[in-house]
Amino acid sequence: MWHCCRWGQYRGWNLDSVHNPDQFMSDLRQILSQGRKRIGLLVGAGAPLAIRVDKSGCISSSGKPLIPGVDDLTNEVVADLQGAEHAAARKIRDELGINANIEKILSLVRLREAALGSTTIDGLDSSGYGGLGKSISEKIGKKVSATLPKERNAYDELISWVSSTTRTHAVEIFTTNYDLLFEEAFEQARAPYFDGFSGGNAPFFDPVTVAGDDLPARWSRLWKLHGSLGWALENGAVVRGRGKDATQLIYPDHLKYDLTQKQPYAALFERLKRFLLTPDALLLTTGFSFRDAHVCAVLDEALAMNANSAVFAFQYQSLAKEEPVLKMASNHPNLSVYAADGAVISGISGIWRPGELAKNWEEIRASFWGLRGTDTAPTFLLGDFSRFTRFCALAQATELQRPRPADLTTNSAPPLPVYGGSS
What we know:
Elements (H helix, E strand, L loop, with lengths): L3 H8 L5 E3 L1 H14 L4 E5 L2 H4 L2 E2 L10 E2 L4 H11 L2 H14 L5 H14 L10 H18 L10 H10 L8 E4 L5 H8 L4 E2 L2 E2 L5 E2 L1 H5 L8 E5 L7 E3 L2 E3 L19 H19 L4 E5 L6 H13 L4 E5 L8 H9 L3 E4 L3 E4 L2 E5 L9 H5 L2 E2 L8 E2 L4 H13 L26
Helix pairs in contact: 2-15, 4-7, 5-6, 6-7, 8-15, 11-12
C-alpha cells in the first residue's frame, strides 16, 4: 500500500501545503444552515459503528458498537455457520485474503449457486450454496437488526438537521447499510421521508417515482443501495414491511438477478448518478470506505461528467490510511477528502493547521477540531459519524460568526466553487 508521501511523489501533490479547517468548516456550516443547496449524504457501515452501547442498550463509551463493523461482521457471521456451510464460507474468506468481507463472500456463494448444478466445491453443490447464501443472509439480518438507543444519538441529530430547515430541495440519503436505523429515526421525529415504496398493506417498489421529483422538498429521500431488512420478493414484486426476519434481499448481486429482482438496485444506483449530475449538487460521505466497487464506479463516472458537482469525503483515519478515496481524488478535483490529520482540497494535499481563534469561534471550532479518544494532539473530528451529525445539528443551533480573512491562515488552494455562495 502506498503511503501518503508516495502519493505525493507519484501524483505531484505538494505535501508541504497546509489547510486551515476553520476556513472550510465555516463555509460548510453556512451551506448546511441555509437550506437552499441541493445536498445528499452517502452513509456507510462506519455510521452505526460510531454509536457504542452497553448490555442494556444504553449509550456508553465503554460499550460495543451498535452494529459491528464490516470486518467483525464478516468474522462473526462465518463463525456462526455450522458444518459444511462453515467450512465452505471459511474457505472462501481465506481465498479472498485481505479483501474478504461478507458481501464479497455472499456474491461468490451466489455465483456458485448459479453455476455448479450437481458439481461440488468444498463439499457443497448448487443447492448447498443456495442454502449457504440463505444462512449468511439470515445471520447478517440478526447482526444488523439493532434498534436505536433511547437516548438522543447521532441518527436523531442528523434527522434534526434534515427536518429543521425549510428547504428548496429535499435532502437525499444514500446508504449501503441494511439496518432500519434511519427509518426509526425519521419516524421517531415524525419527519416525512420517501424510500421508493408506495402502498399500505404491502408497499411495492415504484421505480417511476424514484426517478422523479414530484414530492415536496420537506419529504426527505432514503435510498437503500444494498437492500434492506424487511424487503421481500412476493408475486414478482419487491415489497417492504415484512419485518427484520425478511433478509432475502440483503445485498443481492444485482448484476446476476433477473429483471424483476434487479430493478430496485438499478433504479437506486441510477438515482445516485442522477443526483451527482444535477448542477451544483453537494454529496457528503460519512462512514464510507470507498471500497465498494459499484458505488465508486457511479461516483467516478458522475464526477468526471459534471465538474459543477462536488463530493466531500469525511474519513476517520489519517490520509495515509485512506488509499481508495485518495486514488479517486487524484483524478477528480471536485472530490475533497477531509481526514484526521489533513485533507485533499481542489486536488491539493496538505496537513491541517488551524488559524488564530476569531471572536466567538472557540465553541464552533470545538465541534470539528479537538482531542479524540487517546489522542495527545488535536485532530479533525468529522470523520467520526457522531461528530459529523453533531456538527450538522449545531449548524442550526448557533448563529455563524464567520472568521474574517485576517483571522485565518490561508493556504495556496483556492476555495472550492461550492463554497461561499448562497446557492
